[in-house]
């Protein structure tokens, strides 16, 4: 009996010591938790910039073998870079966008590479909120040109017995445009109206800019002014390389992001030159539809429209008809590899 009481007493003592140790551990954990709650949180660094980089590489190929309807084997390769930086801090907001396009093709009917896509376009829009809702004081800058020369490819003369050489094809082409030939630079001050996240309208009644044509033989085509009255208008050097402009610009932007894989953007710009009030305004309209079919593959449809009343679309030296002006239009439908990088900083 004494042994039984001794065993019971030892058991009770062990449970008592264990309970005391458990209480002390719980108290220490609570104290540590309380101390941790008193540590101040480190505030996150504000992020004002939102950057999105979209890249595309598109490849096309056509092969024909004994095709009765005719045609030529050809391959094409084109690349596109679209970089957008958005900034927002307090009442100050801005958007910088750089678009680079370049592409070429090789067709069996001409033994030379032909450029079919070339554009450099940079645009910066900055605004400061005004007392009026959805309206900001704005400054808008844009610059547009291309990387290198672009040609119209004629057919070289041939006696029917000897095929034209590569040099014959090169000699038969005629220069149409080049780097800084032309280049358009414009800076406008006005107001930016943003009634919805997907639409903005910039009205700049004070816009100054310049049209630059660095290649003398193209200056007449792009409506540059003669250095003085009476000079021979067929000599490129007799035209000024720069034409200054001062007028009003209206620019409308729309961007619809339907979902993570489909989007549509469009921009229409109208510029009216106060210095030539009788000349019609210059109009440009760009569109892009982007459809991401898979993680790294996308279908892109883009169009560019230009109406410049001072640019000669058809040269009288080519067909004997008077120089004419008209609407310039370009369209691309492309499928290829795409990659997007997006981050805030």
Structural topology:
Layout: H1 2-37, E1 49-62, E2 74-89, E3 92-107, E4 110-129, E5 135-145, E6 150-152, H2 166-172, E7 174-177, E8 183-196, E9 199-212, E10 242-257, E11 262-273, E12 282-294, E13 297-307, H3 316-319, E14 327-344
Written account of the structure:
It is a single chain. This protein has three helices and 14 strands. It is mainly beta and 345 residues long. The protein starts with a helix and ends with a strand. Residues 1-20 have low confidence and may be disordered.
Structural class: mainly beta
**Could you tell me how far the N terminus lies from the C terminus, measured between alpha carbons in angstroms?**
80 Å
Count the DSSP helices. 3
Helix content: 10-25%
**Beta-strand percentage range:** over 45%
- Shape descriptor reads flat
Helix-strand topology string? HEEEEEEHEEEEEEEHE
Strand element count = 14
The whole-angstrom Rg is 33 Å
Offer a quick outline of the entry.
By secondary structure, the protein is mainly beta.
Structure characteristics:
flat; 345 residues; 14% helix; 3 helices; two-stranded antiparallel sheet
């Amino acid at each position: 009996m004494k042994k039984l009481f001794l065993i019971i007493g030892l058991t009770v003592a062990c449970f008592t010591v264990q309970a005391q140790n458990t209480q002390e551990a719980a108290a220490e954990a609570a104290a540590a938790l309380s101390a941790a709650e008193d540590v101040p949180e480190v505030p996150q660094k504000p992020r004002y910039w939102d950057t999105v980089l979209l890249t595309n590489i598109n490849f096309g190929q056509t092969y024909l073998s004994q095709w009765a309807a005719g045609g030529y084997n050809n391959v094409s390769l084109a690349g596109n870079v679209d970089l957008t930086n958005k900034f927002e801090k307090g009442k100050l907001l801005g958007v910088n966008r750089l678009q680079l396009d370049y592409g070429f093709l090789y067709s069996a009917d001409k033994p030379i590479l032909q450029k079919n896509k070339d554009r450099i376009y940079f645009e910066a829009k900055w605004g400061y909120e005004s007392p009026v809702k959805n309206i900001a004081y704005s400054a808008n800058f844009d610059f547009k040109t291309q990387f290198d020369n672009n040609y119209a490819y004629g057919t070289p003369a041939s006696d029917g017995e000897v095929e034209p050489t590569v040099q014959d094809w090169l000699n038969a082409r005629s220069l149409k445009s080049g780097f800084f030939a032309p280049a358009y630079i414009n800076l406008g001050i006005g107001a930016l109206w943003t009634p919805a996240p997907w639409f903005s309208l910039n009205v700049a009644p004070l816009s100054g800019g310049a049209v630059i044509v660095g290649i003398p033989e193209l200056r007449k085509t792009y409506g540059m002014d003669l250095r003085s009255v009476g000079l021979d208008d067929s000599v490129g050097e007799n035209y000024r390389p720069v034409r200054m402009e001062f007028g009003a610009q209206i620019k409308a932007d729309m961007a619809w992001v339907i979902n993570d894989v489909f989007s549509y953007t469009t921009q229409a710009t109208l510029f009216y030159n106060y210095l030539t009030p009788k000349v019609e305004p210059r109009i440009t309209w760009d569109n892009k539809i982007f459809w991401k079919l898979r993680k790294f593959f996308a279908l892109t449809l883009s169009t560019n429209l230009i109406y410049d009343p001072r640019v000669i679309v058809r040269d009288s030296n080519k067909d004997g008809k008077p120089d004419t002006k008209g609407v310039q239009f370009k369209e691309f439908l492309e499928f290829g590899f795409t990659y997007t990088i997006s981050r805030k900083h």
